[in-house]
Structures are given as structure tokens and as C-alpha cells.
Amino acid sequence: MKHQIVIIGAGTAGITVAAQLLLKNKELDIALIDPAQKHYYQAAWTLVGAGTYDYKDTERDMGDFIPKGATWIQEYVQEVQPDDNKVVLRDGTDVTYDYLVACPGVKYDYDQIPGLKEAINNNGVCSNYVDPDYTWKCLQEFKGGTAIFTQPATPIKCGGAPQKIMYLADDYWRKQGVRKDSEIVFATPGSVIFGVEPFKSTLMKVVDRKDLQLRFFHKLVKIDGEKKIAYYDIVKEYDKLSAVCYNYRDVGAEQHVEGHVAIKYDMLHLAPPQAAPDFIQQSKIAHQDGPTKGWINVNPHTLQHNEYHNVFGLGDAAALPTAKTGAAVRKQAPVVVENLLHLIANEDELNTDYNGYSSCPLVTGYGKMVLAEFNYDGERDSDPLLSKVFDTSKELYPMWILKKYGLPYMYWNMMLKGRA
User: Cα–chain-centroid distance for residue 131?
Assistant: First the structure.
């Protein structure tokens, strides 16, 4: 089986690229490889987990969004063999290509944390990444005690999601009258709540207003789901535990041995560790060593592979030093499309415009949102038109409306159609 352009993954990146290509040239021979029957708008799962959005409204039939003129290959990828311009499917079929676009998304790597696979979706251990309906159930059933919200040590899609649900949980528990009997802890292996100003300062004000405890340099290493204990390594030298925390309080059910802490929880929300799919990690299109080992090896500005020039990578599986979000894909896709068309036309000049733009809609409570937009340099990169009307670094109700209604509409009706 041979196609001019093969796209691995019919998620946000794959469908957007295919749609934009076919809008520019409907004669292109494009195949999308993805076994999924459903397509999800995962950005709304934070709201599902807080009981303010219906899960079924985030789901559509995949077939409704495969662009007209593209071939949909409903099978899993087994191998990528760039030396032979070939993708091998799980059923043994070889799919050859002139050009490859790799955007398969990420997998959840539960094995990185012992006990996680057994604990998830059970006995108060929840994740909006896995089952946001169960998160909402846990929020409703929580009657006080210690609630931990934790971030993994790996790159993850939508890096702000583990804290967004915490802010919403605090709001919900205050309305239910159980917040006064609760301790909320945010545990992260990182050193800050958010890396870009002025958004960081806004979020720290939220932390103070809500009286949340932040524990930095805390890497989750094990979960005992039966005893409801989360074990952390503290990945920085310190003299006392409070030195790596903010608003530190002993929650009264923790054991602390130098460099390690075990915290008993009543509810635990986490983002599972994430990695590129195995067939990417095992392929030559991935970095073979170093800190980005296993992620797709592409030029950060052109999205072209650094060794195989007929290969492009974008989206969550690409080794790009920016947040893995759908907003990033919206800026990456046009660069990939333009550069593919340049190659097809035998034109040497490539578009180098991708500057690492990404966006994190940080919901800070019901009816409140901060829209953090930034680039590779860790600088604010807010939309100039939106910024004329709103200061998106502040908690605003219009940004909540954008999150709940505007962005989903744009996603389904414009972005996946190649028009945004």
C-alpha cells in the first residue's frame, strides 16, 4: 500500500494537518492511520471532572472528522522504518510513503509508578486524564481530610491540568461546607507553580486566597492504594521539609525520612506519567539518547525531522521544549503544511516561524480563568487582538466563557476543518 503523504495519528494534529493540506490541494494523496472509533475534545475534561460539562459532549465519531479526500486506515502502527519510507501496521501490512507526518500523541505509562495501575479509578484515586467522570464522583464523595493533587516527572499534555482541577475542587468543597475540614496539597517535582510571568504571580495569589499547600521537588514514586498512602522522593537537598514547600503544614498523617515523604490521603488526583508510543520510542525518528530520548527528533522551528527530511513531527510526541497543548498544535500545523508543500514542489526554503507558542487556559474556579500564552523563551505571547480587550493574565469570567463555549466550538467547527 503506497500513499504520497502518510499521517500517523488522527488526533488534533493529524486531522488538522490533513484538513489544511486538502484545502490547499485536494489532489494530494493522504492517508491517516488511527484505529480509534471516537475523537475526544480532551481540553474539556477538566470541566467534566468538576461537574460543569458533560463527558458525552466531548466525544464525536472519528469518521465524521476524517477530511474528505483522505484515506482512513483503521489499524495500529507496529513499526516506523524511515530508512525504507515505510510504516508497518499491526496486521502486517506495509504502508509506504513519500512524506511522513508523525503525530501519534502520547501513552500513559503507569508502570513508572508502582501501584498506580492497581490504584487508578479506585478508592479515591482519580485522574481527569483517564476518567473525568470518576474525578467528579470523588469530589462529590469527599467529606474532608487530605486531598493531594500531584504532577508527574515526565512531560505531559496540558501541563496545567493537574492544578486546574485542584482550584475547582476547592471551590466545590467550599460550597459543600467540607473545605474547612480539609487540607489540599499540590505536589510537583518542579520548582514553581507556573514558569511564566505574569501568570505565575496571578496563580500564587489564587494559592494564597484558597490557602493551598504547595510542595515543590516532590516526585511521586509509589502508591499504596489499599492503605491510601502516596510516596514521594524529594529531588532537592534541603535542611527542613518546609524549605521545599509553600504554606507548609504537616497534614498529620505523613511520615518523613530524609529525602522521602509518605502522605496518607483521602483523595488523590494525578496526571499519569506520559511517554511517546512504543513504536515511536523504538524507531529511528525518535531521539536515541539524552533528555529527549524517545521523543520525535524534529527542528523546533520548522518541525522537519533533523535526519529524515521527508519526515515531520508535531503535537504531543514531538521533542519540543514547550507545553503539549492543542493550542500549540494550532500554530504548529500551518508550519508543517507549508513546509510539506515546499518539499513536494522541490522548493528549498522552509518556514521557520514556529516560536514555541503554546497556551494553557488555567481555570482558577467556577466562572474564572487565566489564559496563559507563551513561547520557547518562556515569555508571555498573548494574542494581540484578545489583549486589546482583556488582560488575560487576570482571573476573568469572559475567559471562562471562552473555555466552556468558545474553544470547543472553534475546535470542532474550525480547527478540525483546517480553518483555524
Answer: 15
CA distances from 162 to 127, 142, 271, 315 (A): 9, 18, 6, 20
Maximum distance among all Cα pairs of the chain, rounded to whole angstroms: 67
Domains along the sequence of the chain with CATH: 2-106+276-354 (3.50.50.60), 110-273 (3.50.50.60)
Average of pLDDT values for 300-316?
98
* 46: nearest Cα among 186, 166, 145: 166
pLDDT of residue 253: 79
User: E strands, 56-158, where?
Assistant: 59-61, 71-73, 77-81, 86-89, 94-102, 107-108, 125-126, 145-150
- Mean pLDDT across the stretch 100-125? 97
Q: How far apart are CA 179 and CA 172, in angstroms?
A: 8
All cell numbers assigned to 130? 483517564
- 69: closest CA among 3, 2, 18? 18
Section 330-355 average pLDDT: 96
Torsion of CA 141, 144, 146, 148, to 10 degrees: 40
**pTM score, two decimals?**
0.96
DSSP of 275-308: E--HHHHTSTTB--SSTTTTSB-B-TTT-BBSS-
Helices (H) and strands (E) counted in the chain, each on its own, are 11, 23
Does residue 18 register a pLDDT over 90? yes
Task: State how far the Cα of 209 lies from the Cα of 205, in Å rounded to an integer.
Answer: 6
Cα separation, 47 vs 405, in Å, equals 11
Spatial distance between the Cα atoms of 91 and 248, rounded to a whole number of angstroms = 54
Is a pLDDT exceeding 90 seen at residue 258? no
φ, ψ of residue 290 in degrees (nearest 5) = 85, -175
If DSSP codes are grouped into helix, strand and coil, which group holds residue 199?
Answer: helix
348 near 382, Cβ under 8 Å? no
Catalytic residues: 158, 360
Q: If 0-12 CB within 10 Å is exposed, 13-18 middle and 19+ buried, where does residue 69 land?
A: middle
Query: What integer is the mean pLDDT of 49-55?
Result: 98
Question: For residue 102, what are the CA distances in angstroms to 34, 47, 169, 175?
Answer: 11, 29, 36, 45
CA angle 54, 59, 64 (to 5 degrees): 145
Provide Rg for the chain, Cα atoms.
22
With beta carbons less than 8 A apart as the criterion, state whether 410 and 400 touch. no
What percentage of residues in the chain have a pLDDT greater than 90? 96
**Pairwise CA distance, residues 15 & 12, whole Å:** 6
